[in-house]
Specification:
single chain; alpha/beta; Collagenase (Catalytic Domain); 6-stranded mixed beta sheet; 5-stranded mixed beta sheet; 11 strands; globular
């Protein structure tokens, strides 16, 4: 799918609009508005003095293009003025907002296009097996260690969590359950705050996501860190989180987008996926960390295989190859 947006100036006559228009006009990816036809008047200029975009020496007017996270675009959508129009792609997904002054576009267009192009894509079974081996075995993972399947897991959020994290992990539960044929997550509610400890019978295996301050994270690292803990660092080598089999601790100063990315990354690590993909550029596990922030279709197929019941905790790389019938 190729997204083409013709930026046609979208300047408005100073005499105002004529005729009726929808309260929430929409422009598709080829530039046609379903709310009101956008007119271009090259003799008019747009006053961008507030943003400093107008050239003081000429009458040229600059068209401002912003790339923002999806969450920011959703906020801006709720605050749209009558001069702003939604831009949608061929799948009717909102990808931006355009006005006479500029274009605001979501920052995950590449991933969105890939997902659309991969819908219903079929993979060779051996390709899925080899990808799973790549993303499972690596770093410190000589043996598979899966989530237990004796009872449901349940997310437990603690510390400085927000409604955004609560909603995100509920969606993760639904996604994981759709991929796993063994372990399942409680997908209707999340445990929040302090965990009850006086259960007669513990009802769930809890996966703890603790959002904490830098001071608390450093204190845990200094005083309580286990040998099996895996450190999460940013591109500058600074500690931003710690993950293990049943928990992930993250800084509360991360952006919402980064917070969700590292929650997913931590969960996948705890699930037993410690490796890297060097050839599947669309994979979440691709070597350029953070380049892809959602699971690819191939990743999902690999997780289905990992949690399909044929592989067990303690299996080595050689064991997995024998299970799959691959050469060892």
């Amino acid at each position: 799918m190729i997204l083409t947006i013709f930026l046609i100036g979208c300047t408005e006559n100073s005499s105002g609009k004529t005729g009726s228009q929808d309260s929430n006009p929409v422009m598709n990816a080829t530039g046609t508005s379903t709310g009101q036809k956008l007119q271009t008047d090259k003799s008019n200029t747009v006053d961008n003095s507030d943003s400093g975009l107008k050239d003081s020496k000429t009458s040229n007017t600059f068209f401002n293009i912003r790339i923002v996270p999806v969450s920011e675009l959703e906020k801006l959508q709720k605050e749209m003025s009558s001069d702003e129009y939604l831009v949608k792609n061929d799948d009717n997904t909102i990808i931006g907002i355009v006005s006479s002054k500029g274009l605001t576009i979501r920052g995950d267009l590449v991933q969105l296009e890939r997902n659309s192009g991969n819908a219903g894509k079929e993979f060779d079974k051996e390709d899925v097996m080899l990808h799973l081996l790549d993303i499972t075995f690596g770093l410190d993972n000589a043996k598979i260690k899966l989530f237990k399947a004796d009872k449901k897991y349940k997310f437990w959020l603690d510390g400085h969590y927000t409604d955004s994290e609560v909603k995100f992990v509920k969606n993760l539960s639904i996604l994981f359950n759709s991929l796993s044929g063994t372990t399942q997550f409680e997908d209707e509610e999340v445990t929040l705050g302090f965990l009850q400890t006086n259960y007669d019978v513990i009802p769930n295996n809890f996966y703890n996501i603790k959002i904490i301050t830098d001071k608390m994270l450093q204190q845990y690292y200094d005083d309580k860190k286990k040998d099996s803990d895996h450190l999460i660092k940013n591109s500058n080598g600074e500690l931003i989180g710690i993950v293990n089999d049943e928990y992930i601790y993250l800084l509360n100063t991360l952006s919402e987008e980064d917070q969700q990315y590292y929650i997913l990354k931590g969960l996948l690590y705890s699930m037993g996926l410690h490796g890297v993909s060097y050839k599947n550029t669309e994979s979440f596990f691709y070597r350029n960390e953070g380049m892809n922030r959602e699971l690819s279709d191939l990743d999902k197929e690999a997780i289905k295989l990992l949690y399909g019941g044929s592989l067990k905790t303690g299996n080595t790389l050689e064991d997995a190859k024998k299970t799959f019938g691959l050469e060892t």
